């Protein structure tokens, strides 16, 4: 994996799974995103951290297509997707998970997965007989559940009554249903206790390589554990990109979080928005 990433890095921008170029977004007098350029190397987990108000959510909205940039470009696997809507970006292979929960709470876990798979199957089932297509979808849904460590005994449980940690797994599975090339993980650990956070961290670890992931997360321990590389956003601008060790030792990063103090980057630095 690391070799793949190094090789892809060397190969240059043409091979980036997702490439933001000079993204600008202004809200009135506030430059929320200031010339953000970011390359996601195929297969990597890329962490995005920054103090509260740095512009992380704004950047995620620009990437997922819920906001349009004032200027700048977004390339997905080399293809310019800047003018595509959120749905069109999902169809092109760029999916977002968490924060926006798209679980149908009154449906069972299995039916949620089937619906997600059906939604992204496009025309591939059009020529199939309905029953055969349905059987196939249910088989795929069971496989997807297993892949995301969802307990088989929970498949017929209403999604709305699952414990928080299990719901996150289902949300993760829903995002994976479209087999995205790039997955935006928007604060997956939000509202979770330490045990659930650890389990979700382990789940994301097992998904490494299945999609290129951009992980925005308050829980520094999770980010530093999972991320191949980390970018630090401060006042709308990326001030550093590097490995966990490089980011920990980066003086500008320390100062952005802690002023002139030389305390190491703490495990949790901001309150949830
Ligand atoms: P983060 O997610 O890093 O905490 P945000 O992207 O939410 O940061 O916000 C960056 C800045 O942009 C903040 O100062 C915030 O108040 C401002 N902001 C975010 N969204 C809007 C909006 N829709 N209208 C006006 N200001 C906004
Ligand atoms: Mg935010």
UniProtKB/TrEMBL annotation:
Residues 18-260 form the ABC transporter domain. InterPro entries: AAA+_ATPase, ABC_AA/LPS_Transport, ABC_transporter-like_ATP-bd, BCA_ABC_TP_C, P-loop_NTPase. It comes from the Bacteria. One of its GO terms (molecular function) is ATP binding. Gene3D superfamilies: P-loop containing nucleotide triphosphate hydrolases. Keywords: ATP-binding, Cell membrane, Membrane, Nucleotide-binding, Transport. PROSITE patterns: ABC_TRANSPORTER_2 (PS50893). GO terms for cellular component: plasma membrane. The keyword Cell membrane applies. This is ABC transporter ATP-binding protein.
């Amino acid at each position: 994996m690391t070799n793949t990433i190094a090789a892809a890095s060397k190969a240059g921008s043409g091979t980036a799974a997702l490439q933001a170029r000079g993204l600008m977004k202004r809200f009135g007098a506030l430059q929320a995103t200031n010339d953000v350029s970011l390359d996601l190397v195929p297969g990597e987990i890329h962490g995005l951290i920054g103090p509260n108000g740095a512009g992380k959510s704004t950047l995620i909205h620009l990437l997922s297509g819920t906001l349009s940039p004032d200027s700048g470009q977004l390339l997905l696997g080399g293809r310019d997707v800047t003018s595509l809507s959120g749905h069109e970006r999902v169809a092109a292979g760029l999916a977002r998970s968490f924060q926006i929960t798209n679980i149908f709470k009154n449906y069972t876990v299995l039916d949620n997965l089937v619906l997600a798979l059906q939604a992204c199957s496009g025309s591939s089932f059009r020529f199939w007989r309905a029953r055969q297509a349905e059987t196939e979808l249910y088989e795929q849904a069971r496989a997807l559940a297993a892949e995301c460590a969802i307990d088989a005994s929970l498949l017929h449980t209403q999604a709305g009554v699952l414990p928080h940690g299990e719901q996150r797994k289902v949300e993760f599975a829903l995002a994976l249903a479209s087999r995205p090339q790039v997955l935006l993980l928007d604060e997956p650990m939000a509202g979770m206790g330490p045990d659930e956070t650890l389990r979700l961290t382990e789940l994301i670890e097992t998904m490494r390589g299945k999609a290129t992931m951009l992980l925005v997360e308050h829980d520094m321990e999770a980010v530093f554990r999972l991320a191949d590389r980390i970018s630090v956003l401060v006042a709308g601008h990326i001030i550093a990109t590097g490995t966990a060790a490089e980011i920990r030792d980066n003086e500008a990063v320390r100062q952005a979080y802690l002023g002139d103090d030389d305390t190491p980057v703490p495990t949790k630095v901001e309150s949830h928005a």
